[in-house]
């Protein structure tokens, strides 16, 4: 295994929210260069998994472990997890009033890559380049993060953050929901451009449409807080046709 290749190992992860156990022993390993899709019925715990991985304060880990490149993340703060290279694009991105998108990106980048000294003009050049690629106007840079952004604009801004911040493991929670057909294509192109041997993806989705454009190697199905089935891309197609009942009864 090359040194730069990342590996996220989730072992028997259990988590609860408001004293209710939601994750009941999740096992999943995501390596650099792999694209995993996570599917599952509403309420299965997919968003809970993403939020628990990022250390969201509402979710309490009650068992198991999360390791990134051998480093235990289970008791780390969200900032430390982000610095370790984890990135989550939210199902419902929140707005951050008073923080301009441009300064947000600059600050977050410095925290993530303290060793890199990228001149401001070069950094802004990168941002403008990718703004275009995700189909956002330059005026978005001077707006507060997600403030008044439409649903689809928020999703595009999340993808912009991903390509600019350059994390090692990317979790995308329903990045495809609420995107129009053109935006879906732009977003899929950006994901494919960012995809490399070093980066691992976990793409949470209900539909195989985005998977057609991205091509996951692995498809996992989360049911009632546990991975109930692992398969290949064809599994996503079968689920779209047949739903989840047949998996539940197996
Ligand atoms: N703050 C909370 N208080 C009580 N229950 C919660 C809370 N947050 C989440 N839950 C419950 O946890 C369960 C899992 O929710 P989660 O959002 O992880 O599902 P999901 O798989 O992402 O579903 P969807 O496909 O609808 O996005 C749900 O039953 C939800 O109601
Ligand atoms: Mg969800």
List its salient traits.
ATP hydrolysis activity; six-stranded mixed beta sheet; 250 residues; 9 helices; Rossmann fold; nucleotide-binding; single chain; 12 strands; 37% helix; four-stranded antiparallel beta sheet; binds adenosine-5'-triphosphate; FeS-cluster_ATPase_SufC; alpha/beta; binds magnesium ion; ABC_transporter-like_ATP-bd
Condensed summary:
The chain is of the alpha/beta class and 250 residues long. It has helices at residues 46-54, 78-84, 101-112, 120-134, 151-165, 181-194, 209-214, 233-242, 245-248, and strands at residues 7-17, 20-31, 35-39, 59-68, 71-72, 86-89, 96-100, 144-145, 169-173, 200-204, 218-223, 226-231.
Please give a structural write-up.
The protein is an alpha/beta fold. It has a domain at 7-96 and 168-248: Rossmann fold. The chain contains 9 helices and 12 strands. It has helices at 46-54, 78-84, 101-112, 120-134, 151-165, 181-194, 209-214, 233-242, 245-248, and strands at residues 7-17, 20-31, 35-39, 59-68, 71-72, 86-89, 96-100, 144-145, 169-173, 200-204, 218-223, 226-231. The strands form 3 sheets. A 6-stranded mixed beta sheet has the order 6-9-10-3-11-12, sandwiched between helices. It has a 4-stranded antiparallel beta sheet with strand order 2-1-4-5. Strand 11 (218-223) and strand 12 form a beta hairpin. Helix 5 packs parallel to helix 6. The longest helix is centred in the middle third of the chain and has 15 residues, at 120-134. The N and C termini lie far apart (36 Å). The mean pLDDT is 94. Bound molecules: adenosine-5'-triphosphate and magnesium ion (MG). Residues 17-18, 20, 22, 40, 42-48, 58, 91 line the site of adenosine-5'-triphosphate (ATP). Residues 8-249 form the ABC transporter domain. GO terms for molecular function: ATP binding; ATP hydrolysis activity. This is Fe-S cluster assembly ATPase SufC. It comes from Oxyplasma meridianum. Keywords: ATP-binding, Nucleotide-binding.
